[in-house]
Write a structure and sequence with these properties.
The chain folds into three domains: 187 residues, Rossmann fold (3-Layer(aba) Sandwich); 167 residues, no CATH class; 81 residues, no CATH class. Helix 14 packs parallel to helix 16 and helix 17 runs antiparallel to helix 19. The chain is mainly alpha-helical. Keywords: Membrane, Transmembrane, Transmembrane helix. It comes from Teichococcus rhizosphaerae. This is Haloacid dehalogenase-like hydrolase.
């Protein structure tokens, strides 16, 4: 305390750390640097996205959330402390804010006090070897008090300095959340955040994360993949209640496997468009994922989820004569074929992609059909979906308003035409049976209610009109 008071006589200089002295978010950077990425990504999702931290009643609940995530990572994967200790100094040297550091260098280092809600061990390792390695650091320790999550920075520094010392101090920060300390010091300065926003989730791969956050939206993933692609495949195979239930058990894993590889194409498509197209239709969020480690992680997830789906299908006797070994080989070949077609598609000019587009869409369903042959009704349903999306794409590429196409209605009409043509040459029992036709028809009719629901939402929230346009299935 004596050294702190002597420093106060010369004038204490409080400095925020994240996006002030350090042009990044130290906690997010630590989480993104931990290994193995697959386990860290799952843990980050479970702790920071699935737990309802808002219910703890803290205004700054996200501090507790981030502390819990860092604590659990080191508890379950302690080697990351050594990894961070080795990597942190280099990261700080690269990401230090030169402008803020230059201003702090004018003061005696003994007068500089870094105040942060970040983790003490994270920041201390970052500062190692820098001019600030011996500065006083007030941050979140391993066993924090409740004030670290409930109050502002004034409550952090108050136990270490008197009110008079704080009143004579200077404080620089980028955050308006530090208003209590800004108001208490003799001179406070609020600056523009240093560096770009940084989120660990944009550097940690999880299946469909890019699709949900940058390519489309979370609601698109729920609607298009869960309520269209998965249900369409299950209905194409389900000739009875038992068969439908069995398909619903294994198809989600197989669809996830396909979409992991498909997402590589999405990501590549956006990156190629950003480089080559004059007017690329990209969401601004796509730029945040330029360092997204989609490969080889997408292939690892595709292999794991595909293996799970194949094992379940084999256990329920759905693979037929293929068996597990040959079925796995066929699945791997289809994943490679899908990737090859998307690779070729991304390197064609936009106008010349039209013939490849239906092939690409059919490869969402064909790999499953290779393992588990669909009925004729199932084939017509899949083709109806592919033709619907092709019509939308052709309209879009020719400059038309593709949002005006009633996709749900078009799919229903195409399926109806196909069924009528089939019934003219074969009995219903040979096409898939009454149960399957009834379930498919019910699903198609239920999908007709999607457009009115989205339109009603858009009327209540005008900014949602863009979402209506993007969420076509």
């Amino acid at each position: 305390m004596r050294s702190a008071r002597n420093g106060a006589a010369r004038g204490i200089r409080f400095a925020d750390f994240d996006h002030t002295l350090f042009a990044c978010n130290s906690t997010e950077l630590f989480i993104a640097s931990c290994k193995p990425v697959l386990l860290v990504a799952v843990l980050d999702l479970l702790i920071r996205r699935c737990v309802p931290w808002q219910l703890v009643g803290l205004q700054q609940w996200f501090r507790l959330r981030d502390f819990a995530c860092c604590f659990c990572i080191l508890l379950l994967m302690p080697w990351n402390l050594l990894i961070w200790r080795r990597a942190a100094p280099g990261l700080y040297a690269r990401l230090e804010s030169a402008a803020v550091a230059e201003r702090l260098r004018r003061a005696d280092p003994r007068d500089v006090v870094i105040v942060s809600f970040g983790m003490t061990f994270v920041i201390r390792h970052l500062l190692r070897g820098s001019p600030w390695q011996d500065c006083r650091l007030i941050a979140t320790p391993w066993l924090p008090g409740w004030r670290h999550f409930r109050s502002g920075k004034l409550h952090l520094v108050a136990p270490h300095f008197s009110a008079a010392e704080i009143a004579r101090a200077w404080f620089i920060t980028d955050s308006r959340d530090d208003g209590d300390l800004l108001a208490a010091v003799g001179e406070g300065e609020l600056i523009t955040p240093q560096g770009e926003p940084f989120r660990a989730s944009e550097r940690l791969y999880l299946p469909l994360r890019y699709t949900a956050a940058a390519k489309y939206t979370r609601s698109y993933v729920l609607d298009q993949i869960l309520l269209v692609d998965i249900l369409l495949l299950a209905l194409s195979l389900g000739t009875s209640p038992d068969a439908l239930l069995a398909a619903l058990c294994c198809v989600p894993f197989l669809t996830l496997s396909l979409m992991c590889v498909y997402e590589i194409g999405y990501y590549e498509n956006d990156m190629v468009a950003a480089r080559k197209e004059k007017s690329p239709t990209l969401r601004c969020e796509a730029a945040n994922f330029r360092d997204f480690p989609i490969e080889p992680n997408a292939w690892i997830w595709a292999a794991a989820s595909g293996a799970a789906g194949l094992a379940m299908a084999h256990g329920m006797g759905l693979l037929g004569p293929l068996g597990l070994g040959l079925g796995g080989a066929c699945w791997a070949a289809m994943l490679l074929a899908q990737r090859a077609v998307f690779y070729l598609y991304n390197r064609r000019t936009p106008k010349s992609r039209m013939l490849l587009y239906p092939v690409l869409n059919m490869l969402k369903f064909a790999p499953v059909f290779v393992l588990m042959p669909p009925t004729k009704l199932g084939v017509v349903l899949a083709l109806s979906q592919v033709m619907t999306m092709w019509a939308v794409y052709i309209t879009y590429r020719h400059g038309g308003d593709h949002t005006k196409i009633r996709k749900e209605s078009l799919r229903l009409v195409l399926f109806g035409i196909g069924v009528v043509l089939l019934l003219s040459s074969a009995p219903l029992a040979g096409l898939g049976g009454g149960f399957q036709l009834g379930m498919i028809t019910a699903w198609l009719l239920l999908r007709l209610g999607k457009a009115p629901i989205l339109a009603a939402r858009a009327r209540r929230r005008p900014e949602g009109s863009l979402l209506v346009a993007r969420q076509g299935s």
